[in-house]
Model the fold of this input.
Amino acid sequence: MYKILDKRALNPTVTQMVIEAPAVARKAEPGQFIILRVDEEGERIPLTVADFDRERGSVTIIFQIVGATTEKLNHLEIGDSLCDFVGPLGRATETENLKKVAVVGGGVGCAIAYPVAKKLHELGCEVHAVVGFRTRELVILEEEFRAVSDRLVIMSDDGSYGEKGLVTDALKKLIESGERYDEVITIGPLIMMKFVCRLTGEYGIKTVASMNPIMIDGTGMCGGCRLSVGGETKFACVDGPEFDGHKIDFDEAIARSGMYKPFERKAHEETCNLFRMEVK
Amino acid sequence: MANMSPNRNVMPTQAPDVRSKNFDEVALGYTAEAAIDEAKRCLGCKHMPCVSGCPVKIHIPAFVAKVAEGEFEEAYRILSEASSLPAVCGRVCPQENQCEGKCVRGIKGEPVAIGRLERFVADYHNARADATIERPAPNGHKVAVVGSGPSGLTCAGDLAKKGYEVTVFEALHLAGGVLVYGIPEFRLPKAIVGKEIDGLRALGVKIETNAVIGKTYTVDELMEDMGFEAVFIGTGAGLPKFMGIEGENLNGVYSANEFLTRVNLMKAYRENSATPVQRPLRVAVVGGGNVAMDAARCARRFGAEVSIVYRRSMDELPARREEVEHAIEEGIVFRLLTNPTAILGDEKKNVTGIRCVEMELVEPDASGRRRPVIKEGSDFELAVDCVIMALGTSPNPLIKSTTKGLETEKWGGIVTDENGLTSREGVYAGGDAVTGAATVILAMGAGKTAAAAIDTYLKGRK
Done:
């Protein structure tokens, strides 16, 4: 069993949890992910490692409450335990020889962008962070990003916080103003990453996108997480989760991510109803 | 006097039209009377041809004789001397090619139903609540087993019986490997696998789930930091193959591994399962092995019209005859001499069909089977909303890529000598990780051989 050591709501729909998992904490690196099950009947869901503390033996996860499993997970409290927690899976972010990087995060994806920015900062790389949210109350990890980036641009769709507009607007402005990046690392909704990659493609800037497709085992066994990258089929769990953003077939990835949407919506509603009945 | 009936006792099964709508076990098992009657058909041949056909060398005439006498517990004791998982083997071994294939009674009639007797004895034993397992005295040596499938469990069981302190590391949340994620409930109930694994735990075997060797720990860490003196790698062949044809990444295309894992391990066949799986209307399963049959029969149980699409003919189907017969009885259509060339989809990238060509067989290829070639102009389309690729699997490269000095074949299989020793001292391997996808019993045989070799190796070091 894997104990919940800390829990904090980052915004109304995003929660951070620190999980006791010494074996995972010992090996985890930014860019890698874990798979968890909430309880004995639960499904396996992948979540990217948001942070880790090797001495404390803990791994931090940040999740958005989008379905039945994340709803159940969010109902657990400090001192409760998860049934399963396995990792670290996938390949770590390649951070070698980078001198200046733009990290572009969107929504809950910022939770994954943050440890990457932190690691690059620790390695002495100049980090520009561009983070986007729908609206002010959804902004997460602002202070954390500020601490590890040389430049931080916060964007909101409705202009209620930071600048109004999309992360691509901000990134374009930075590039146009003469900033030269060795690499852009982007993590967030598929549609956002698609447009970030389209933009950097125009400028010929190497771009890495972190993918989070549907998967079961996370070790290369099911192939459910497959993506087309440069015309080849890749498994996000073992070949990724990060890929050359200019080669990813995002339209295919978007379609694949919607495979179980009706099921997920129904399961989420049912779970919410159960919790509501418990409250009554 | 032996029972000289040329026919074996019939295995009672659920009726095809009933079982094709549920996931309960198809074969129901012998009664004690049927088992005794069947056991009496054994001639007790002195030269024991059946044993020569058994990869784990069960003393078959001895256990069958005990069944004939009604001494079922004694029969179990003999079985368990050689096999760690008799309730499993009795169900999934291809006995027709092994013990039963060598049975003298098979010359003029049907061979003794050894597999069914094995199953009967194991189930009889497992049903008795008072069956206790004696834990052997520890010998103070630690061995790690990587993977909890048939080879790993067998190796662990044999070593534990000799007093080794064995820890099995399993990447998934549940032990059993292919026995729990691959083979469906209706062929091998998971409660039976669980019972066999409980038996190993009672012997003192520790099972650490959620441990991916190559990620969470490496083989080197197991040996250098964690005090294991030997390691057995039984990681199977888990990597699914695809055809590389157009449309394979459409929604509705599954590897058999994914489809079966969702259905079996994650219990997606249950109405209230947290894990989704598509409930298709028309399914094409590509491939002709046991895995293809399993996937097809699972899909059939969701009410789908299911076709097996296989490029050779009935004679070349690699699946067990019994599985093919069961599939046909359950209404699965066999589209033989047929090969897919593309998977078709709609604008939402959902599968709408599969384009195929007809094949004909010409002279044998390197595998000795007649080679299929395309009939020109024979293109046709099948309307389906789901395609399951059951084309075989290859070993997972995770261990190879993280273990220094571990030699592998080009196709990924780990290189070992006849005792399972790899190119690394103290590191042994067996099962599908070495041979490529094969059977449960061959993997068990390899686990058994390696356990004996590990014992010899560690005794030599003392």
Summary: The longest strand of chain B covers residues 351-364. Residues 440-461 of chain B form the longest helix (22 residues). The two ends of chain B are 52 Å apart (CA to CA). The CA atoms of residues 90 and 236 of chain B lie 21 Å apart.
